Amino acid sequence: MIRPHRSHPLWYAFLLHRLSGLALAIFLPFHFYVLALALTEPDRFGELIEWVEYPMVKFAEFGLVFLLAVHFFGGLRLIALEFLPWSPLQKTYAAIAASAAFLIASTFFLSAI
Amino acid sequence: MLDVRLYLLQRLSAMVMAPLVLGHIAMMIYAVQDGLSATEILSRTQGSWLWALFYGTFVLAVSVHAAIGLRVIVFETSGLRNRALTVFTWAVFAGLLYPGIQAVYAVTAS
What we know:
The structure holds 2 protein chains of 2 kinds.
Chain A: H1 9-40, H2 42-50, H3 55-83, H4 88-112
Chain B: H1 4-32, H2 38-45, H3 49-77, H4 82-108
Helix pairs in contact in B: 1-3, 3-4
């Protein structure tokens, strides 16, 4: 069953960021392994690099670049949310939230004394 | 589960990587144009301190970032906690850093 929050766009943003990050982390050891062969087994390194001529490999590379780019932009979005200053409207909302809370708490307090 | 230090380290490693990722993508698009070959890659990177520094920083930052990221996923999806979680985080860090540095050395050493 698909729960309601999972149809929200932000859920997909989260999911895409998580899955792309996970996939990139799984890919990295293979990436490093092939590159390290340049020193230990140069012939094998050359052979593996030539794989990029296969259409399937090119398509897989497209996928990897997409994962990297989408994780990059998702990360920028997170950093912007967390570190950039709030817009005037956001500050207004935050001030309204604090004032409303103060009003409610004061109402309670006035009733209590 | 993240404490403040791990959270900040995750954001710091991300900020370090942001320009490196852009550089990496630009380099890939440039390099793949005439097809890739071992000679072509190595002629660009071998003996270059600049590329060694670029990719060395990248490997360090990505090892930190992936270790903390996988830690969060494992925490949320498995029963791994406390010491086991710490061991897992360090294992991912070392498991990426060591082969990563080896890879950078392999393509930049002259």
